[in-house]
Design goal:
Layout lengths: L4 E5 L2 H14 L6 H13 L3 E7 L2 E13 L3 E11 L8 H15 L4 E4 L6 H9 L20
Helix pairs in contact: 1-2
Length: about 150
């Protein structure tokens, strides 16, 4: 089989090309144009999106950012990790995690961190198999971002 290659997704056209893959993880995303615009905003704030694929076909994506806080020091946080459903179970997800592990080490990060939903049992099993452990539960509050008028 052809070796998997990794490509930084940096422009609007690349984002549009990856939209169908990301939508498997984030079905609430409305359309490719909205997705591309949001990724461009997030890139401005330090987000990086990398596609894994063969030739011109993206089969997996990983989105991440380097962060630092008092609890963990410098760390790499994975925002998004998705493999196209017809390629799952073929080690693409593991290769994407290895890619960001290498990136984290190269950027002097102490930890690799990600969140997954409580109802995502398959994803949780995958992360455990990858040697990751749970350390916390995240708490969220939706804030009304309504009109300030």
């Amino acid at each position: 089989m052809t070796p998997l290659h990794f490509t930084a997704v940096t422009n609007e056209q690349d984002c549009r090309h990856c939209f169908a893959v990301m939508r498997e993880l984030r079905p609430h995303l409305a359309d490719a144009a909205t997705f591309a615009a949001q990724v461009q905003r997030q890139i401005h704030d330090g987000y990086r999106l990398v596609a894994a694929g063969y030739a011109d076909t993206a089969i997996g994506l990983i989105g991440y950012r380097i962060q630092e806080n008092l609890m963990s020091g410098r760390f790499l946080f994975v925002d998004d990790l998705v493999v196209r459903s017809d390629y799952r179970g073929g080690a693409v997800g593991a290769q994407l995690l290895d890619f960001v592990r290498d990136e984290a080490r190269a950027r002097d990060c102490r930890q690799l961190v990600l969140d997954t939903g409580l109802g995502m049992a398959r994803a949780q099993r995958f992360y455990f198999r990858q040697g990751m452990l749970t350390r916390s539960i995240g708490f969220y509050e939706d804030l009304d971002a309504g009109d300030a008028t």
